[in-house]
Amino acid sequence: MKIITIFFVMIFLTMNAQAQTPSPLQPSVKNVMCGDSATVKNFLKSYGEDDFELIGIQAVNDNFHIALGIARNHKTGTFSIIETTTTNKTCIVGVGKFEKYKKQEGRL
């Protein structure tokens, strides 16, 4: 009986050690701006980001998909990365400026 108990304790300790092994990736809290799709699209257009391109679609399940896209302003070189769900919710998850525009402005 002692051998069986020791065996189960060893398995438990091994599993517990594996569960505590840190991941190289850590969760992060990031503020994003969200709204219904038309509101977000109009918001981006108000900043001149009116060139929208679909990058890809991820099927979470049969009824829920997430579309990833980019909205660009070719005059200023700014862009926004957006995610849109099948529930008509769109979020701006990233923003930036293309490198070639930074070089033209002498920022690189």
Polypeptide structure, described:
This protein is an alpha+beta fold and 108 residues long. The protein has one domain. 31% of the residues lie in helices and 39% in strands. It has three helices and five strands. A five-stranded antiparallel beta sheet has the order 1-5-4-3-2. A hairpin with a 3-residue loop joins strand 4 and strand 5. The longest helix is centred in the first third of the chain and has 18 residues. It is globular. It starts with a helix and ends with a helix. The model has no long low-confidence stretch (mean pLDDT 83).
Can you give me a brief rundown of this structure?
The chain is built from 3 helices and 5 strands. The N and C termini lie far apart (70 Å).
Could you describe the largest sheet, including whether it forms a barrel? 5 strands, antiparallel
Shape: globular
What is the CA–CA distance across the termini? 70 Å
How many structurally independent domains? 1
> Spans of 5+ residues with little confidence (pLDDT < 50)?
none
Number of helices: 3
Task: Tell me the radius of gyration.
Answer: 23 Å
Assign the structural class, choosing from mainly alpha, mainly beta, alpha/beta, alpha+beta, or little secondary structure.
Answer: alpha+beta
DSSP strand count: 5
Proportion of beta-strand residues? 35-45%
Q: What is the topology, as strand order, of the major beta sheet?
A: 1-5-4-3-2
Topology order in helix (H) and strand (E) letters: HEHEEEEH
Name the helicity range. 25-40%
Summarize model confidence as the mean pLDDT: 83
